[in-house]
């Protein structure tokens, strides 16, 4: 639910959809009706997933669908519905990605690629990743469907198949998915850093573009680090360990440059700064536990424990969600021209930050003591930390409720905004009207004026 129906639709479908045309100076995406088609698929996909969760006690396979659990283990309709829902999510994503890619590449007119804003670059790289990855997932789950319904034996060793192939297909998609989720959040964080500090550039532009491309490319060849427990040989383990650790280098450089950019300026404390620092903390924390997990030797000890759960929640669920909230707190005033109250947003941040950390830090301890994932009932020695973690989850739920209240308050009290408290030169800050602002004629002209200064 989080990956396919919250983070991707909000980060790429929401922010990307809204800001891509504005930033490159087009009236809309190149294929607006295709965009609408993609949007209508979203509720259908969610509906199928929800029905799947409610039918026959839910599918017991997790999001990974490993056979034979998903082929022989659960023969009800629940797994089929989930697969169908993933198919719909896949069609959505591919349609959207072609739309985005052609808008970014065609719509930029005669501009050089180097002058595009970074958010666009992250969108282009994630688009590339999704277009080559999603069909692989679609193939995997379709073959799984054949195994379930048509009695084929692709993933069943009794009929000459190989169970492991599914894991390869799944993680060939699954690992780049991590970058697909988090790269747009990087773009937003960079925008936020620029808006906060008033600098025209955060760091060397070409450097960060190549860093994003590098993260994307290396991310495509590390998938088997999810499969150290299976029968892959020692050489492959060594390779996948090394390749996975290498990704930490470009990512680490990005984090340090952001921190330096913030340190070298005088900024008053404000909610956006909290969100940016919160994102950096969460993402770095998750990244460090990721380096621990990327070692084949370490991973065998803590595989399938709560440590892994804590790791990917720090990077993805919380890291990417912090990116989303950073985006909301910098873009909400410029999208709706309405003020939010800084103190209340700050209190939401405090609640949410405390909540997610109280939830997920104890989960690390549980994992290190060998507490396994996906178990309904745990031994009583884990009770203490489980209780703390549950308490934290209540705090985060309260924080989300608080956020919805703030949002309502902003809309209903209607405090109009006359000036933007920002020196950011990016195009979306300079426009008055955000809906179909450009016509074909002025597009290149506007782009040239705006994009030049940011290169100096
Ligand atoms: Cu991975």
Chart the SSEs and their pairings.
Elements: H1 2-24, H2 32-54, H3 69-73, H4 77-106, H5 118-149, H6 164-197, H7 205-219, H8 234-263, H9 271-294, H10 296-302, H11 306-336, H12 342-368, H13 383-413, H14 427-430, H15 443-451
Helix pairs in contact: 1-4, 1-6, 1-11, 2-4, 4-5, 5-6, 5-7, 6-7, 6-9, 6-11, 7-8, 8-9, 9-11, 9-12, 11-12, 12-13
The chain binds copper (II) ion.
Number of helices: 15
* N-end to C-end Cα span: 42 Å
State the helical fraction.
over 70%
Q: Major β-sheet, in short?
A: none
Count of distinct strands: 0
Spans of at least 5 consecutive residues whose pLDDT stays below 50 are 441-456
Task: Say which molecules are bound, naming each kind only once.
Answer: copper (II) ion
- Silhouette: globular
- The SSE order reads HHHHHHHHHHHHHHH
The average pLDDT value, as a whole number, equals 83
Radius of gyration, CA atoms, in whole angstroms? 23 Å
Strand content: under 5%
Overall structural class, as computed from helix and strand content, comes to mainly alpha
Account of the 3D structure:
The protein is built from 15 helices and no strands. Mean pLDDT is 83; it is low at 441-456. The chain is globular and about 70 Å long. It starts with a helix and ends in a 5-residue tail after the last helix. Helix content is 71%, strand content 0%. It is mainly alpha-helical. The site of copper (II) ion (CU) has 4 residues, from helix 6.
């Amino acid at each position: 639910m989080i990956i396919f129906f919250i983070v991707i639709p909000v980060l790429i479908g929401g922010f990307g959809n809204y800001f891509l045309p504005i930033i490159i100076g087009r009236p809309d995406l190149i294929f607006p009706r295709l965009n609408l088609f993609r949007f209508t698929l979203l509720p259908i996909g969610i509906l199928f997933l929800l029905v799947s969760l409610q039918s026959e006690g839910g599918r017991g396979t997790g999001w990974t669908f490993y056979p034979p659990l998903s082929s022989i283990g659960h023969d009800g309709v629940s797994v089929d519905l989930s697969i169908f829902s993933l198919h719909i999510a896949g069609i959505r994503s591919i349609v959207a990605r072609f739309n985005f890619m052609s808008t970014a590449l065609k719509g930029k007119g005669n501009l050089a690629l180097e002058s595009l804003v970074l958010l666009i670059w992250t969108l282009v790289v994630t688009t590339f990743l999704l277009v080559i990855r999603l069909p692989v997932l679609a193939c995997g789950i379709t073959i799984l469907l054949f195994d379930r319904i048509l009695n084929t034996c692709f993933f069943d060793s009794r009929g000459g198949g190989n169970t492991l192939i599914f894991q390869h297909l799944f993680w060939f998609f699954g690992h780049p998915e991590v970058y697909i989720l988090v790269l747009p959040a990087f773009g937003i964080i960079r925008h936020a850093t620029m808006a906060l500090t008033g600098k025209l550039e955060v760091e060397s532009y070409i450097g960060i573009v190549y860093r994003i491309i590098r993260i994307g490319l290396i991310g495509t060849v590390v998938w088997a680090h999810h499969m150290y427990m299976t029968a892959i040989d020692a050489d492959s383990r060594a390779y996948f360990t090394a390749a996975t650790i290498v990704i930490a280098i470009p990512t680490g450089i990005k984090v340090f440059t952001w921190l330096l950019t913030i340190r070298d300026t005088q900024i008053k404390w404000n909610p956006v700064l909290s969100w940016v620092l919160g994102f950096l903390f969460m993402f770095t924390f998750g990244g460090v536990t990721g380096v621990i997990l990327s070692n084949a030797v370490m991973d065998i000890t803590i595989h399938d424990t709560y440590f892994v759960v804590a790791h990917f929640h720090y990077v993805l669920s919380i890291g990417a969600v912090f990116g989303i909230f950073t985006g909301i707190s910098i873009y909400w005033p410029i999208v709706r021209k309405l003020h939010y109250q800084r103190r209340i947003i700050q209190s939401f941040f405090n609640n949410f930050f405390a909540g997610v950390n109280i939830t997920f830090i104890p989960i690390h301890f549980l994992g290190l003591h060998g507490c396994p994932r996906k178990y309904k009932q745990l031994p009583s020695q884990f009770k203490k930390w489980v209780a703390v973690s549950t308490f934290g989850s209540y705090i985060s739920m309260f924080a989300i409720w608080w956020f919805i209240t703030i949002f309502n308050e902003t809309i209903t009290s209607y405090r109009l905004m006359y000036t933007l408290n920002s020196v950011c030169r990016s195009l979306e800050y300079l426009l008055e009207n955000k809906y179909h602002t450009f016509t074909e004629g002025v597009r290149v002209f506007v782009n040239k004026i705006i994009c030049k200064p940011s290169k100096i």
